[in-house]
TrEMBL record:
Top-level lineage group: Eukaryota
Molecular-function annotations in GO: glycogenin glucosyltransferase activity
Species this chain originates from: Tribolium castaneum (Red flour beetle)
Encoding gene (name): AUGUSTUS-3.0.2_31466
InterPro entries recorded: Glyco_trans_8 (IPR002495), GNT1/Glycosyltrans_8 (IPR050587), Nucleotide-diphossugar_trans (IPR029044)
Similarity field: Belongs to the glycosyltransferase 8 family. Glycogenin subfamily.
The protein, known as: glycogenin glucosyltransferase
GO biological-process terms attached to the record: glycogen biosynthetic process
EC number: 2.4.1.186
Segments of this protein annotated with the region Disordered: 323-343
Length: 369
């Protein structure tokens, strides 16, 4: 093949949704380079077929997992051991040069100029700017580099349990040696940075070329109103509403219509939903389930939908429905004092959890989203 390619990775159907949106975003900005996606056995055949309609190459690779639980715990992302699988990108030797993009990135403007850079070019990580963030990097495929990286991984491991800790140890002179390998932040604008330095985001945000939804606030885990097709982001990413909507617009227009129920994870769940139509009871139940999943990974709308008042109302409604007709009913929230715990007085924690659980029983938890 030769030439240049954008490369991403998906180990399951949920992350594949991110890969698909990313690929469409690259096409929308008119990139002239090829698209490749690494998939592992966790990606279903129907999803691979869907990926093949947008990517020039769908390459199966085996999972590489650091299994480094203690460092992953420090990172608060136990699931990221599998990001070692990224290393396979160095084996795509049919290309001369590539840019790796995480599946949780979205390309906002054409950035084909990235291929003028050399290995290993990347932007600083917002958590520790003397490290690069490994969600966007320029590299040269080489079996030799791949072997060395795997050897290095076996001997030295990774300080964060994921690929970023490994790659920063391997390309250890990145911080000091050659400034041309420091990509401007606009090529890997980390969503959390917008929040921690909002004035800079207001000043420079419009220049962003690639946005990276790092952490647990993935676009596909945001609350999305299937009836209005509008995303309703949690406060931590509220300032990114327009960009998140851009992600969902691509999803609704180009991806959702081709999803099938034999896909797994969120892809399979979304295949069962009709967008833009009044919600059926089943759809509302699924929405609740997705919202609960978002809640569990920390996407909580403290001041809005998930506010104390709303939770309290929900508890009262549920209890009223369960109490005998003549029992006194209350909808008044308890005063915010330390010992006011009227609910616990009459119900055990387990009973309370059972009464207020919103997950419909017939929907099984989605795997690994
Ligand atoms: N990834 C994947 N499956 C997983 C976790 C991660 O395919 O279960 C891939 C995907 O390409 C993802 C990348 O590895 O974008 C890095 O993970 P993530 O973006 O979740 O890490 P973060 O950028 O939030 O630290
Ligand atoms: C980071 C990067 C991501 C990487 C992860 C684990 O936050 O954004 O690409 O996979 O750390 O090292
Ligand atoms: Mn990422």
């Amino acid at each position: 093949m030769g030439g240049f390619a954008w490369v991403t990775l998906a180990t399951n159907d949920s992350y594949s949704l991110g890969a698909l949106v990313l690929a469409h975003s690259l096409k929308q900005v008119g990139s002239k380079h090829q698209l490749a996606v690494l998939v592992t056995p966790g990606v279903t055949n129907p999803m691979r077929a869907k990926l093949a309609t947008v990517f020039d190459l769908v390459q199966e690779v085996n999972i590489l997992d650091s299994k480094d639980e203690s460092n992953l715990r420090l990172l608060k992302r136990p699931e990221l051991g599998v990001t070692f699988t990224k290393l396979h990108c160095w084996r795509l030797t049919q290309f001369d040069k590539c840019v790796f993009l995480d599946a949780d990135t979205l390309v906002l403007q054409n950035c084909d100029e990235l291929f003028e850079r050399e290995e290993l070019s990347a932007a600083p990580d917002v958590g520790w700017p003397d490290c690069f963030n490994s969600g966007v990097f320029v590299f040269r495929p080489s079996n030799e580099t791949y072997d060395k990286l795997v050897q290095f991984a076996v001997e030295k491991g990774s300080f964060d349990g994921g690929d970023q800790g490994l790659l920063n140890l391997y390309f250890s002179d990145w911080a000091t040696k050659d400034i041309s390998k420091h990509l401007p932040f606009i090529y890997n604008l980390c969503s959390t940075a917008c929040y921690s330095y909002l004035p800079a985001f207001k000043q420079f945000g419009a220049d962003a070329k690639i946005i990276h939804f790092i952490g647990s606030s993935k676009p596909w885990l945001q609350y999305f109103n299937t009836e209005t097709r509008k995303v309703q982001p949690t406060p931590d990413v509220k300032h990114l509403e327009a960009i998140l909507q851009q992600w969902w617009n691509i999803f609704c227009l180009l991806i959702h219509p081709t999803l099938t129920p034999d896909m797994t994870g969120l892809a399979g769940a979304f295949a069962q939903l009709t967008l833009g139509a009044p919600r059926t009871a089943e759809q509302s139940a699924l929405d609740d389930h997705l919202r609960r999943q978002g809640w569990e990974v920390g996407n909580i709308d403290y001041m809005g939908r998930d506010s104390f008042d709303n939770i309290w109302n929900k508890i009262c409604q549920t209890l009223s429905a369960a109490l005998p007709e003549d029992a006194p009913k209350t909808t008044e929230a308890p005063p915010p004092s330390t010992d006011a715990k009227p609910i616990e007085k009459s119900l055990t924690e387990g009973q309370l959890a059972a009464k207020t659980a919103i997950m419909p029983k017939k929907i099984t938890p989605l795997a690994n989203v």
